Amino acid sequence: MKTYHILIILILISCTNKKENTNDKLPETKNNISFFVGTYTDTKSEGIYTYSLSEDGNINKIGLAAKSKNPSFLTKSADGKILLAVNELNSVNGMGTVESYKILGDSLVLISQQSSGGAHPCFIAVNDKGYVLTANYSSGNIGLLKINTSGHLSELLDTQEHNSSNHGKENMNAHAHSAYFSENNTFISADLGTNEIWFSTINNTNNKIEVNEPSTLKISGPNPGPRHIAFHPKQNWMYIINELNSTITLIKKDKDKNYKIDSTFSTLPDGFKGESFCADIHISNDGKFLYGSNRGHNSIAIFKINQESGALKSIGFTSVKGDWPRNFALSPDNNFLLVANQRSENIVSFKRDTATGLLTFIEEIKVPSPVCILF
Questions:
Q1: 116-144 burial by CB neighbour count: b if 16+ within 10 A, else e?
Q2: How many Å is the maximal CA-CA distance in the chain?
Q3: Which residues form a coiled coil (predicted)?
């Protein structure tokens, strides 16, 4: 009997251990959210990776989704079935490239690759009509392509040159940094070199970019360097994060539906004397809080948005637990904020208090040269 009891105990222990080991390899639950990470591949990275975010805010690595060179910015098609990435290079006839991938669960399958229309593309956007915009940093232009329903990219359709003498201007130091679709194929782009916001429209008939009138808005301040844009979800307000002077510019539409600069806010605490450069900007889904990343100060600046005026009130700074926070992202439910720290090679998860907007550190995970987080 004693031998029998010992045998039963050993069997139970064995089963328990197997269950624990199996749990380590269980597939994602319905409460986990997968996300993709774009990287720079000049160190250990091989391309685009997949990770998951648990309902507790913990991050787990799933694996390499696709090998790619410098896939520094990512986006998804309107139906969420295709992932688009820029290759921040100038190796193809002095230009970078754009790639499209079929999303198969946590994996990516390459569909097509085309020229971005310029050197070192650092941003990509797509609208529900299938038009694709790239912001080519080094050549200072916007590239236009189109993607079909199967995910194949067209050849380059047109470019918008910011290094030009259009409208009597000579801008020889353009650095297009981002481009965002509005409605009816209109889009707004930010140029860090010319310190301008450009307003443009895609002509459906000939697939060409046309500048609106007025075509540009100059961002005020000492060499601001407009980089990315966040649009308020309920008002005609947009917020420009300026890389070079660490500010955020509030722009509003006037009664004639023209955009006008309203006010400017610092992203750094009073008295900060070090070197710092802004990177990314996002607004919570309820329109109550705005977040911006500081590279150098290595923080997320947190602001409360005045719902009547759009003015920003600084309510805190959260350390990113790393170096050089590039892109960051709010989880789809807005309960978490994830930061990609490029130089320290980690992604950090924060719990977001939806009532106060403040952030609480959850955990970090090592990631090779992360640049972009895409849910």
A1: bbbbbbbbbbbbeebbbbbbbbbbbbbbb
A2: 99
A3: none
* Residue 109 pLDDT greater than 50, yes or no: yes
- List, in sequence order, every residue forming a beta bridge with 247; answer none if it has no partner: 242, 266
Structural domains in the chain, CATH included, are: 68-218 (2.130.10.10)
Note whether 373 and 75 are within 8 A (CB): no
- What number of other Cβ atoms are within 10 A of residue 151's Cβ? 19
Single-letter code of the amino acid located at 353: D
CA-wise closest residue to 117 among 50, 46, 207, 204: 207
Tally DSSP H helices, then E strands, for the chain: 1, 28
Tokens at 276, concatenated: 């710092």
Cβ neighbours around 337 below 10 Å, total: 25
Amino acid at 178: S
Chain-centre distance of CA 142, in angstroms?
Answer: 17
Please provide residue 213's backbone torsions phi and psi, each rounded to the nearest 5 degrees: -125, 120
Comparison of pLDDT for 130 and 2, the residue scoring more: 130
Q: How far is CA 248 from the centre of its chain?
A: 17
pTM to 2 decimal places: 0.90
Residues with Cβ within 8 Å of residue 95, at least 6 apart in sequence: 115, 116, 117, 118, 119, 136, 139
Tokens of 18: 């197997």
